[in-house]
Design brief:
homodimer; about 200 residues; mainly alpha; Tetracycline Repressor, domain 2; 9 helices; about 0% strand
Amino acid sequence: MAEREDGKREAILEAARSLVFHYGYRKTTMQDIARRAGVAVGTIYAFFSGKEDIALACAEKSKLAVVERMRRASAGDAPAPEKLRRMVLERNLAYHDIFKDTPHGMEIVTAVLPRKEELIKKFETMEREIVAAVIREGNAAGVFDVSEPEEAAETFLTAFYRFTPPMSIGLTAEEIRAGTARMVEMLLPSLLARPGGSGKP
Amino acid sequence: MAEREDGKREAILEAARSLVFHYGYRKTTMQDIARRAGVAVGTIYAFFSGKEDIALACAEKSKLAVVERMRRASAGDAPAPEKLRRMVLERNLAYHDIFKDTPHGMEIVTAVLPRKEELIKKFETMEREIVAAVIREGNAAGVFDVSEPEEAAETFLTAFYRFTPPMSIGLTAEEIRAGTARMVEMLLPSLLARPGGSGKP
């Protein structure tokens, strides 16, 4: 029963996502979403308070997928610097993938703008925690020497603002890949432990 | 004669700036601007093709002021790392100063959006060149060891996207100051020459 409910909710989200990506947020109506999802309009309102609420749930789902790609990239036993390289590249390309097939990128961003703050805070915390964990891992292995991993993780991620939406909408995958790679290399030396012990002033 | 013309152009820009900052872009009319500047509406059209053109000229003037503050911060004979610290802080606070007294920040940004690309390219190049010059100075002094100063300058500046408009609109001066300072310290080690000669791989 709960499973069938979940299935309906997913179908509504998937219908909304594909309609909004194809036709844009403003042109997509609740009727369109219901028809595509194969449910009655009233059923949608059992799950969501309205179109903005659906857009927010779509954004959450996308962001969760990004965080999952970061988690996967940070798993395993590669050296911490390599994990940071992979993870941030995975993250920025994951964001790119979400928007690459739609001409309505900015419209989608604008749709969730009124509730952007809660969304951003929640996922910023999740992303920061994943990066901080890798930094702590690097500290433990003696590769990094970072006194405040959470603060460092926040600054590290902030440096990639240009390569995440909505700023990155319009950049090619290649531009994101190259810009991200150069940024990582500019940030990493500050995290590294000096050979021969803690060389931090 | 040319001087009097310049004076009129400046008066129009100043009138537009103060009206747009106070009442917003949409609510400001060409009539308002003419009245405030003490000229006839026809006179405005001798200088500008319309409101968007005035907004663009205002944006250019603001950006030139930012670049000037960067130039001043990079003058003198402080060590190159210190110059970079000062320069990027001056820059980000200068951008903050422009928007801090207006509730219409995003509206102002949106006004020049259709011609944003040309504006951004022009000033990105100017900013990058100022930073690259300091990096070359640091190279010459043996403080830095950077093989591609222009590329490094671009990556360096990109890291501060979060602290420049429109992304920084809503941040306090203190948040910009703290975030900028932490970012500089995360970037600087990658530029430094290793003691005892070029240690770059």
